[in-house]
Amino acid sequence: MDAAMNLRRVAVLGATGSIGASALDVIARHPDRFQVTVLAAGRQLQALLDLCRTHQPTHAVIADEQLYPALRDGLRAAGLATQPHAGSAALDQLAASDACDTVVAAIVGAAGLSSTLAAAAAGKRILLANKESLVLAGELLTRTAERAGAEIIPIDSEHSAIFQCLRSRDASLDGAGVRRILLTASGGPFRGRRRADLEQVTPAQAVAHPKWSMGPKISVDSATLMNKGLEVIEAHHLFHVPAQRIQVLVHPQSLVHSLVEFIDGSTLAQMGLPDMRTTLAVGLGWPQRIEAGVGGLDLLAQGRLDFEAPDTDAFPCLALAWQAMDAGGTAPAVLNAANEEAVSAFLQGRVGFLAIPALVANALSTLPAEPADTLEVLLSADQRARQLTLNAIAAA
Ligand code: NDP
């Protein structure tokens, strides 16, 4: 068979971010397997142009429509044949088009939902890093993917670990003999601190994650433990696990990425260095294993593995996420939207660290959960939670 016919054509959405960089690093190691056909970014025009020079995609998309002329002119000046596009509609259309068969969904926040849904409806292989889309519209997204035959491969290291232990996402819990899922958490930069010690922490301290190098939003989510809360909801949707069968374990070394316990008493864990290129290689190559540029584990050098219970008093965001998942309907969308606005305000120095859980709790108690059977209902809940949170920030 013609080698070109076996090439996976990959769209990297969120190409200028941390996951985007890891994905492109793995892809570039396998020119015989993968071809980057679409690169998409939010606002970082120069970084997108640099990536286009390196990867020479067929299409480049900048979400901010005002940057379209600069993208077009920059591509032309670089002598590239890459076609320029702008705006979220163009992004959705390309994610669903024949330009790609694989979509790395690595846009941060609810902004990633629309293109992820478009890729799901078009039956693509989706390497799903954008956990917020599952929190906001988990049932809708998984149902859309199932109907269209799209394959969702989780990129979050914990969910990739569970996926690898189960060897698929389809293995329904009971059929696979799964008793429970143990989701590990690093504990973030403030592990071990009491609530009172968190009053004055700064954005720079919050984004300085001890183990992972990530974008600012997820880094703050790791510091508040909201990231783990979002991941509990994500695991619930990806693996059809009821909440009572998910346990969070703080594991500061971040080497055991998660575990699955089976009814016969076996527990399988997936381990590796904290480097997202491993999970991206799993998603790109699955079911084959491909080189990721990541070394193996030297357990003798690492010495020990510790596990402890999460402190939900100092880090109430984890409990808020459980609360939202239990309430169901629009509650996870409200949780996610309030959190995005609160984290953004914290990063801009407009509110303190402890305001993040307070603002999320306020949104959840002010906007009671409603049944969420359509995308419109979910997006409306998202918008109301954002407005409510922005008003609360302005009034503070
Ligand atoms: P970054 O902040 O590093 O990157 C975010 C990317 O999203 C950038 O390319 C940004 O473009 C793009 N973007 C932002 N807003 C829009 C928009 N409205 N339309 C189109 N593109 C947009 O984030 P990360 O790479 O750290 O995280 C990405 C996702 O992956 C998140 O959902 C995160 O939770 C998840 N994830 C990340 C992990 C990590 O190790 N980083 C681990 C597990 C999950 P630009 O910068 O050009 O504006």
Summarize the SSE layout with pairings.
Layout: H1 3-6, E1 8-13, H2 18-28, E2 34-41, H3 45-55, E3 59-62, H4 68-77, E4 83-86, H5 88-95, E5 102-105, H6 113-121, E6 125-128, H7 131-148, E7 151-154, H8 157-166, E8 178-185, H9 203-207, H10 216-224, H11 226-239, E9 246-250, E10 256-262, E11 267-271, H12 276-285, H13 299-302, H14 317-327, H15 331-347, H16 355-366, H17 375-395
Parallel strand pairs: 1-2, 1-5, 2-3, 3-4, 5-6, 6-7, 8-9
Antiparallel strand pairs: 8-10, 10-11
Helix pairs in contact: 2-12, 3-4, 5-6, 6-7, 7-11, 7-15, 10-15, 11-14, 14-15, 15-16, 15-17, 16-17
General description of the model:
This protein is an alpha/beta fold and 396 residues long. It has three domains: 2-154, Rossmann fold (3-Layer(aba) Sandwich); 157-273 and 298-313, no CATH class; 328-396, RNA polymerase sigma factor, region 2, helix turn helix motif (Rna Polymerase Sigma Factor, Chain: A, Orthogonal Bundle). It has 17 helices and eleven strands. A seven-stranded parallel beta sheet has the order 4-3-2-1-5-6-7, sandwiched between helices. Helix 3 (45-55) packs parallel to helix 4 (68-77), helix 11 packs parallel to helix 14 (317-327) and helix 14 packs antiparallel against helix 15 (331-347). The radius of gyration is 20 Å and the shape is globular. The model has no long low-confidence stretch (mean pLDDT 95). The structure holds NADPH dihydro-nicotinamide-adenine-dinucleotide phosphate (NDP).
